[in-house]
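User: Hi! I'm working on a homework problem where we have to compare a predicted structure to a textbook description. Could you give me the structure for the chain below?
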Amino acid sequence: MKELFTETSQYRNWFYSKEKLQEIREKNHASAVERVKQRMLEEAELQKSIPTRGEQPERINSPRLNPAEIEYLKMEDELALCNYYQTQIPLVVSKFPEEIQKNKFTDKVKASAITYVKRFYLRNTMMDYHPRDIIITCLFLAAKTEFSFVPIEDFIKFLPTKATKEVFFDLELIVARSLRYEFTIHHPYLSAYGLFLDMQTVLKDAKTIQVIYEKSKEFIHKSLFTDTMFLYQPSQIALATVRIAAKELNFNLNSYFSIKFNSEPKEKLDSLYKKLDEIENIIKEYEPTPLNKAKEIDARLHKCKNPEKNPNSAISRKRKLEREGLEDADNHKKKKIEDEYQKSLEEVFK
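Assistant: Happy to help. Predicted structure tokens:
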């Protein structure tokens, strides 16, 4: 019989080996850099035909580019900056009234938002979409998908940064497409709670079990900022965090493990313990990106952002004129067809 997790979209589309995850990131980053480079060259060429002063200063408002001087973000830079902004999601939540924090922005909502950010940047680049906007969009989307909807007017009102609902609606669609509209996230929290209930049927120290469970949730929260959700099943992450919490409290879980897994083949148990050790090492070795490093990367990001995403750039104006030209041509074609149709009717009823 198949494990339930293997039947989920999370397993089918967002579950990888370490090697595959690295390969996806490298390909996405290389493709993004090449594409942004082409847009930079196009922007620089278009800027040459625009006077620094004169007839169009209000239409074009982007810095003059020298493509040869632009330093693009490395993959490691994007990962570090992504990590920093993920850790800001709980801080954004703290700006809301306590009642909304408690009833709307649950651990599951915050975990979904963090996971959405991770998944989004697996297929996108910060040179197109700044994480400051994406984390807020993912939080708003996660509240909806986890049935903790906050009206957009209330959501915007308590944000630490200025934003309009139009921006959110545009980004929400972009994020949803990048997620393949797969919004359900299977978190370790539910598995940890199941372990908490199960341990009480085997072990008699209910008070210590409660403390272990509460402590394990701290490690689950920490694991959200790592790659564990891409690499391991939620039940494995939950079991690893419970084991870490028990170790820190000097509580021996061997009796529980021996009872629960005594019928499992040795090879399967060895594989499980190996994965638990790997998860434990990842969580213990995790260090958040420092603010000074995030600021330094952010400053470089500002200089290599895709000009196509800047509505005031020369390339954006060119794209707008091209769209308007296509619309005019389409309208002209429709009018011609309508005129011919009306003329044919007149011929019939002469």
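For your comparison, note the following. The radius of gyration is 26 Å. The mean pLDDT is 87. Good luck with the assignment!
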